[in-house]
Design goal:
single chain, 251 residues, mainly alpha, MetI-like fold, 81% helix, 0% strand, elongated
Length: 251
Amino acid sequence: MNDFGIWITETLGTRVWRIIRILVESFPKLLKPCLQITITLTLLSFFFGLILALILALVQVANIRGLKQFARFYVWIFRGTPLMLQLFIIFYGLPSFGINFNGYIAAIVAFSLNLAAYNSEIIRSAIQSVPIGQSEAGYMIGLNYFQVMTRIVLPQAARVAFPPLFSSLIGLTKDTSLASSITVIEMMSIAKRVAAVYYEPFWMYMEAGFIYLMICTILTKLQSYMEKKLEWKQPDDTKTELETVKEERSR
């Protein structure tokens, strides 16, 4: 091998080891905000968004005049505008009216409100997929509206809504990277800082992407497992929710 070939080999070898060293050193720096900020931000936003989504869906299904129109308007606004814009309005815009949030709280508010708009449509569709005869039969045996919803309709709707709701959780995990735009020090923020120090943006963002990929892979496996647990059993193996309620009422 000539001198040029030796120089190329040594140069490439040095660069490869440098990149490996940087990736090893930066991994804990990226993992820490991922566990402390990214995951907690995802779970809190999904929890509050799911509660609000359920309220919006029930308001629409119950056909409460005035509230239904408000719910439809809410869904229209938040599904029709970019999430980034909503983050900016809540963090940068609301202080103009004396409403101030720190970056973390603003991110939770924005993600929750945005997620609620999408998930409310999922829950509404799942509730409406339950045959109307189920509800009517519940009323006929003396159940009130609350009992019909909680004991007959919602348990069946939950199985229908679970896959798309869990998919929205996976999507939210990736969307939390937008929080870096409103000063939240999460994984993408750290990746940008490390990239600026080592001048290796490609490998830093690749490493951050790998961590996101691993989290979403774990969530996808969990979703598949839970979907199998929630699969409908054959009629001869189990009784329907309505049959169970009838038996309890007859005792």
